[in-house]
Amino acid sequence: MKVKQDQESEVVIETNPAAIPVEEKVNKLNLDNTAVSSKERLSAYFTIAAAAFGLISDGYQNNLMTMSNVIFKKLYPSTYTSEVSTRVSNALLVGAVIGQVIVGLICDRIGRKSALVITTLLIIIGATIGTAAHGANGSVQGLFWCLTIARGITGVGVGGEYPASSTSASEAANEKMQSQRGPVFIMVTNFVLSFGGPLAVSIFLIVLSIAGEDHLPTVWRVCFGIGIILPVTVFFFRLRMLSSKLYKKGAIKRRVPYWLTIRRYWKTLIGTCGAWFLYDFVTFPNGVFSGTIISSVIKNGDIKSTAEWQLLLGTIALPGVFVGAYLCNRLGRRYTMMLGFSGYLIFGLIIGLAYEKITGIIPLFVVFYGLMQSFGNMGPGDMLGLVSAESFATPVRGTCYGLSAAIGKTGAAIGTQAFTPIQNNLGKKWTFIIAAICGVSGILVTYFFVPDMTGVDLADEDAAFLKFLFDNGWEGEIGEDDGRALVTNGNNYEEYNNEKGDSV
Question: Based on CB atoms within 10 Å of each CB, which residue in 81, 244, 292, 355 is the most buried?
């Protein structure tokens, strides 16, 4: 492809066979959402459903270690130290950070479908290795290193699911149900992620009841093995999915303008990255170690009793997701998130300042603990994924979403690593007081840096982003397949050669 440029001419977009002025092309990006084929319509619904099934698998994997930590502590009391427990638990988070960044880039540069297929395969491989994990010559330390590697591989897949599933779901929902995009997105993302907690504990209780406490190795291996089933069921549908119209029209696969992206979205990235860091710093260690916390509060409690209280905790936390879905359009994304962070402040202080008294009444402790997590689900849990999927233009949505989520998982890894030292050196109540401090910080970050995209068509942001690129002299190819177009500063050119795939 050769392009001749006239420095005095206006920026135009070249397509085959005629050049289109910027204004007309920008208007064309406001897609007619009704003009979709039946195949595209069916694919959009399957994409949304597949996102739900994929992320429920993530939720299950995120919470799998909650009761596994309790089992390993009982089976290997001298070997499964706090350092080993933290390492195995953190492996998923470290893998998730890698997956979110890399798969976020793949989402934008190669395509949503490729990213989703890769993440699904990684989860299947990691879960399979974890289920079959053994140490050399029966070594217990070898077992936990094998689990660390397996959880790391699973984590790359789980982390990649966040940008891959969420961007696909938001674009599909924008095409088919724009006015309800927020609630639909929440129900197929954070609801299923949050439901993964009660699901993991429920499956644990069922397997424990069947196998009995005398066969704990069987219990944890079966629970790990069940984690293979969910990604396998969704794999076929992902092989057959189509790209969204937004992606087909707006993808930038070459000469991606990362510097211009930062110039346009730096403030939004501070908001999404900062708020996600604070949220995951609190919610992940409290999720991973909540079983350990409850077992330490229950006097002479067995594993089944701990799991039952853990199930109640997860169930109390779940309604917050529905409240957030209800409020996201009525109250707006920003204020709903701030309201959720305020729950960390209120209940974190209540539990932290009265820890000795509240833990003496186990039902009261679990209710307050559950309400704190429910507010987290209602606010940042629901809104962060939604805001990150809405605030960035389609060409860089996966990348920016992945970066935001990766910073969040970094907070989760740091929080998990710091959890035990905080308890040992400052006291158990300080884990809740620090949660309250994070709540205040989250409110401030959200208010000053997080945009409210309630009711905004994603195509409008795409149009504004592309005009920003044009105004700053960017040249390159946008779109894929029949929707490809060429952006240049001149209006004299040769026809675009689709067969050769030449680019500027």
Answer: 244
